[in-house]
Structures are given as structure tokens and as C-alpha cells.
Specification:
heterodimer, A: alpha+beta, Porin, two-stranded antiparallel ribbon, 7 helices, 17 strands, elongated, B: mainly alpha, Rna Polymerase Sigma Factor, Chain: A, Arc Repressor Mutant, subunit A, 2 strands, about 65% helix, about 0% strand
């Protein structure tokens, strides 16, 4: 043996190529674990696919409810039109139809209304939803409207059944995997769980509280009856950016799933305005300003309130705003019996307190985690104000009528969760929110904006 | 160098026989490595098991341009190091300065078996065992060891010196007979 005085050489010579057969059961364990790893990857894939399908299903279900509302609205419009054709006079604002007789009698300003109603009637021939001469019976109408709903329902049932089958198959796979695990592994897992349970430091909290803020990009989405739309303020923009903030609480019963709720404040704005200088009716109103609001103004003589149609619903003004001049009987053939003479912009602000109920699923559980979420929210209307922006500034002029005091929305999103410490997390989560019902109860208005927001905040686990 | 490419392909496809064949080819040598890094045979078995599970899970990342044995060995060593890190057993121990000059004769060396040496190395404190293995058996430099174990080079050198002296003392206590000479360097 060379250089035997050196302990390094001694070890190198004797142990460098040292071999020893390991116990035979090791190979069995290794092969079993390798198979389990492969299968668990497959199970994880199916689990993610299942969650995605469930969230998609919730989203589609929301759309279904959404489109059912739409059909009901269309039906209401058809019925409303039938009634309107029979009547001699038409109102500018359908929601006020019950007060028709009283209003016509008492109004001294809307003298050109008959001409206007004739104009509206003639325009119906262009309208695709116009009423035919022979009225269809309501029962036939209802049947034809219900059919597509039934077929949609069947489609959803099929999807639900296929997801159920998928989950059953998944459960079978998991059961098979468990059966394939050796008894040793099961014992090891049990010991691990026991150790986790006995060591409180290693147990993670199940509750999370947090605070969030979100810039929300609201996209206007509305439809109106033709009659309503013919006398409506033009939408100034189809979107607005508003801020929201709130508190969240989350309960996490398992490693992946959690339920989240909280209280959230959100704002939404809808702008309407006019580019009146292009209006050809200027020539008939030489005494007034060159620009005027291109909408009919309805005046309720009993309450002395002015109102006009907008994208989000009927704006009810407290009085005649100082920046406006009310004109009437401008010309005998006028479409607009009474108009505002000015170039202003109306902004309808709505404020909501939201109480969400969401399901969250952790896709990646690491320092930078990824979560999917989907759920519903009850939204309470707490603010409803209409502002007028003119040359002399902004002033509160009224509110929007018939706004639903409570409505419901569906939401879904994918977010990142960054672990700042063991208990503190930074969340960034883009979400899409859509309203399940119209925010305005007026049967001629369907106002359901979409909201895209990036919810950013901190959460604390305890 | 033996071509393992076809066997690796079979293993990646999940062929159990291929996995077993690959295991049988390398397991004895790797078990020898595990025994050197572990405190006893049980820990060595655990490390070998965890190591091969990792090897099989990552086979598709192995590029055939290098040595398969070297690649597997690296994984096994990493698993062994990780195990000791997790156990928080990296504390240094006892003063062994009095054994600085102990060396052994050829006769003593001849009657020591590999199993005896293995037992002695397993009895070393974890950090000394790691540094000794990485420096003497894997041929790593102190700089590499320092990076691997997140310690300074000075600590690595000191740990190696202490490991050597403990081993010498134990060989002396077990097998007797010494001769005064010291010709190694750190």
C-alpha cells in the first residue's frame, strides 16, 4: 500500500470504489413511489382541469341567467310596444306610463307631443323589433321564447353530467393510487401527519384577513327599447375608470380550497352628453344657443320635476339647472317638444357596497403562488348621484330613477400570491365582473356594465 | 463508456424492468456513497431511496453528453447533504489537537477493513463527515465546499483537519500502534 501514513489515502484506497448491495425492499419502494409520482401528476392535471371547468360552468351559468333576463326584457319591449301602438299618445318615458292621463292633462309645455308620437310611429317601420299588424297572442310569444331556454338548460345538464363522470373517474384513479401505496408509505404518511398535528409551530393558520384596492375599468353594456332610445342622451364614453377598496376574510379548510368573503366598496360612472352643434334643428331655434341637448325633456307638472332618458336609466333633475335654458314649442314639427339649450355633460355616479362569496383554488403553492377564483357578489346601492359638467363647473343636479337597490354579479379571476413572510402575503389579482341582472328596474332599460379590475392588497394568515 | 441511452429511454417511458435494471447497475456503488455520508445504515438506505426516486423523476433532464454515473452520484450526494441540513446537525465538536501527529503503519492499515473505516467515518460529527467526504473522496476544493455548505474556506479547512484527527485517533484506539509522521496537507 502506497503512502499509507496519510489517512486521506487510506480512505480513498479502501472506500473510493466501495460497493454494497442495498436491501431488496428499497427497489420496491422506489418503483412504487415513481409510479405514484407519475399518477399524481396526472391527477393534478385532472384536478386543475376540473376546477377550470367548474369556474367556466359558473361563468356560463351566469351568462345563461343574463340572457334569460335579456329575453324577458325583449318580451317586455314587445308587449310595451303593443300597448303603445293602441294608445293615442306615447310617453317619452315608459316607466311613467301609469301616470299618462294625468300628465298629459296637466302638462302645458309638451304641446307638440302628438307630432312627436307620430314621428316615433313612422320610425317603427325601420325598427327590426317592430310590431306586425296582426298581433300574435301572448301565449304563442311565451312558448317561442321559452324553447331556446329549455334547450340551453339541457346543454348545461350535459356539461354537468360530463364533469360528474370526470370527477368519478378521478376519484377511482385516486383510490387505485392509494391501494398501490405500500403499507410502509401509509404508515410514514400517518406519522408525518401526527408529527404535524403535535407540532403547533408547523401548523398553518386557516384564516386570512386582508385589505384590497382596485382600479376598475368599467365597460358600459346596455340595451334599450327603440322608443326609449329615440329620446336618449348620447353616451359620452363607453367606459370609465373608477376606484374600489375593501376588506376580505378567507377561510381555508384544506390545502388548496378556500372560501372568501368580505366587504368591498366600488364606484361606477356613466357619462352622457351632446354634440349639439351638428343638429339640423338649430335653424328652427335661432333665438337659443347654437348647441342644445339632443334629448326630449319630460316635465311632471305635479312634482315639477324634469327628467330625461340616459344609457343607465332615466335621470331625474331636481329643478332646471342654472346652466341650462329650457325651450318648448320650438317648432310645430319638432321631434323634441322641449329641449335643454346648452352643451353639457351628465355623469351618473353609482356607489355600491359589495358582499362577495367566492371559492378560491390554489394552483401553485409556493413563495409565488397562483390561485384561481370564482364566485358571486350581492351589491347594495349606497350612492346614486347625477352631476352636470358645463362651462361654469360641475354641480349635483339629481339622480337616476329606478335603480335596483340590490343586484347580483358574478366574478372570476386568476391571481398571484407572493409570500412576504410566513403569514403575510401580497396579492395581485386581475378579475372580471359581470352583472347578472340589470342595474335599472325600468323595463325599457337593460344596463349591465362589465368590470375589469386588478385587485391588489395584503393578507395576513392566522 | 457504457451507452445507457436506450435504457434511459425505456426508463423515461416508465418501463419497470428498465428502471430496475438501471437501479441494479448503480445501486451498490451509490449505497457505498450513501453510507459514507450517513450516520448509519438506516439513514443511508433512506438517502439511497430518496436519491433514486429523484433520479427516476429527473431522467428526462439528463443529457447524454456526460457520465450517467457522475450525474446519479451528484444527485445522491445532494440528497445526503440536504438530509443533514434539514436535521440541523451541522454543529462542530470536541478539541482534538492532541492527536495532531498520529499516523499509522502499513501493518495497521492492512488489518483495517472497509467496513471498519466506514463505521469510523459514520461516527464523525455531521459537518466533519461532510467536509472530509467532499474533500477527500469527491476531490472538491475548499472553495467549492465553502460554497456548497455556506461556510467559509477557513471553516472548511479547520473541519477537515479535525475530521482527520478524529479518524486517526479512532483508528489508533481501535487498532493501536502508531508512528510519528505527518505528511499531508489541507
Amino acid at each position: 500500500m502506497k503512502n499509507t501514513n496519510n489517512i486521506d489515502e487510506l480512505y480513498r484506497e479502501k472506500l473510493q470504489n466501495f460497493e454494497k448491495d442495498p436491501p431488496s425492499y428499497l427497489l420496491e419502494n422506489i418503483l412504487a413511489a415513481t409510479v405514484v409520482n407519475k399518477k399524481s401528476r396526472k391527477v393534478v392535471f385532472w384536478r386543475i382541469a376540473g376546477v377550470a371547468a367548474a369556474l367556466l360552468l359558473a361563468f356560463v351559468a351566469g351568462w345563461q341567467i343574463n340572457s334569460r333576463d335579456q329575453v324577458e326584457l325583449e318580451q317586455a319591449i314587445v308587449m310595451s310596444k303593443n300597448q303603445a301602438t293602441d294608445a293615442e299618445t306615447e310617453k317619452v318615458i315608459p316607466s311613467e306610463q301609469k301616470l299618462d292621463s294625468k300628465q298629459v292633462e296637466s302638462s302645458n309645455i309638451l304641446v307638440a307631443m302628438l307630432d312627436h308620437s307620430e314621428q316615433v310611429k313612422s320610425s317603427k317601420s325601420i325598427n327590426p323589433i317592430s310590431v306586425s299588424d296582426t298581433e300574435p297572442s301572448p301565449s304563442i310569444n311565451e312558448t317561442s321564447l321559452l324553447k331556446p331556454l329549455d334547450s340551453r338548460f339541457i346543454k348545461i345538464s350535459d356539461e354537468t353530467a360530463s364533469i360528474k363522470r370526470l370527477q368519478e373517474r378521478k376519484t377511482k384513479e385516486v383510490t387505485k393510487d392509494l391501494a398501490e401505496k405500500s403499507i410502509d408509505q401509509q404508515i410514514m404518511e400517518q406519522n408525518q401527519q401526527l408529527a404535524m398535528a403535535q407540532n403547533p409551530d408547523r401548523r398553518k393558520g386557516r384564516w386570512l384577513v386582508g385589505a384590497q384596492v382596485s382600479p376598475a375599468y368599467n365597460v358600459s353594456n346596455s340595451s334599450h327599447s327603440a322608443q326609449y332610445a329615440s329620446n336618449m342622451l348620447a353616451a359620452e364614453s363607453t367606459h370609465s375608470v373608477d376606484l374600489g377598496a375593501g376588506l376580505t376574510i378567507e377561510y381555508k379548510p384544506g390545502k388548496r380550497w378556500s372560501v372568501q368573503s368580505g366587504v368591498y366598496y366600488s364606484g361606477m360612472a356613466q357619462s352622457s352628453g351632446i354634440s349639439g352643434s351638428q343638429n339640423s334643428k338649430n335653424s328652427f331655434a335661432p333665438g337659443l344657443a347654437a348647441d342644445y341637448v339632443n334629448t326630449s325633456v319630460n316635465v311632471d307638472a305635479s312634482s315639477n320635476k324634469l327628467s330625461m332618458n340616459s344609457t343607465a336609466g332615466v335621470i331625474e333633475l331636481k329643478g332646471v339647472p342654472s346652466q341650462l335654458v329650457l325651450g318648448s314649442k320650438l317648432e310645430s314639427n319638432s321631434v323634441t317638444p322641449a329641449v335643454f339649450a346648452s352643451d353639457v355633460q351628465f355623469t351618473q355616479n353609482f356607489e355600491y357596497i359589495e358582499i362577495p362569496l367566492c371559492l378560491r383554488y390554489t394552483l401553485i403553492d409556493s413563495r409565488i403562488g397562483v390561485e384561481m377564483m370564482g364566485g358571486f357578489s350581492s351589491n347594495l346601492l349606497v350612492g346614486n348621484e347625477t352631476y352636470m359638467q358645463g362651462t361654469s363647473g360641475k354641480s349635483l343636479v339629481g339622480s337616476t330613477k329606478d335603480m335596483e337597490p340590490i343586484n347580483y354579479s358574478g366574478t372570476m379571476g386568476v391571481g398571484l400570491k407572493y409570500s412576504l413572510s410566513k403569514r403575510l402575503f401580497l396579492n395581485v389579482e386581475p378579475r372580471v365582473k359581470y352583472y347578472l341582472n340589470s342595474l335599472n328596474s325600468n323595463s325599457s332599460v337593460s344596463y349591465k356594465p362589465y368590470t375589469i379590475g386588478v385587485f391588489t392588497g395584503l393578507s395576513y394568515q392566522f | 463508456m457504457e451507452d445507457f441511452k436506450p435504457l434511459i429511454s425505456e426508463c423515461i417511458a416508465g418501463n419497470q424492468k428498465a428502471l430496475a435494471e438501471l437501479y441494479h447497475h448503480f445501486a451498490p456503488k451509490m449505497f457505498g456513497v450513501c453510507l459514507r455520508y450517513a450516520k448509519d445504515a438506516t439513514e443511508a438506505e433512506d438517502n439511497l431511496q430518496d436519491g433514486f426516486i429523484k433520479v427516476f423523476a429527473n431522467l428526462k433532464t439528463f443529457r447524454n453528453d456526460g457520465s450517467l454515473e457522475g450525474w446519479i452520484r451528484r444527485i445522491i450526494i445532494n440528497v445526503s447533504l440536504e438530509k443533514i441540513r434539514k436535521q440541523h446537525l451541522m454543529c462542530p465538536v470536541e478539541d482534538v489537537s492532541i492527536y495532531d501527529t498520529i499516523n499509522f503503519s502499513d501493518d495497521v492499515i492492512a488489518k483495517i477493513s472497509a467496513d471498519d473505516l466506514m463505521k469510523l467515518i459514520q461516527e464523525l460529527p455531521p459537518r466533519y463527515r461532510l467536509v472530509f467526504n467532499l474533500y477527500v473522496m469527491e476531490g472538491m476544493s475548499h472553495q467549492e465546499i465553502a460554497q456548497e455548505m455556506s461556510i467559509t474556506q477557513g471553516t472548511s479547512k479547520s473541519n477537515l483537519a479535525r475530521a482527520r484527527e478524529i479518524l486517526k485517533r479512532k483508528v489508533h484506539e481501535t487498532f493501536g500502534e502508531l508512528k510519528a509522521q505527518n505528511n499531508y496537507t489541507a
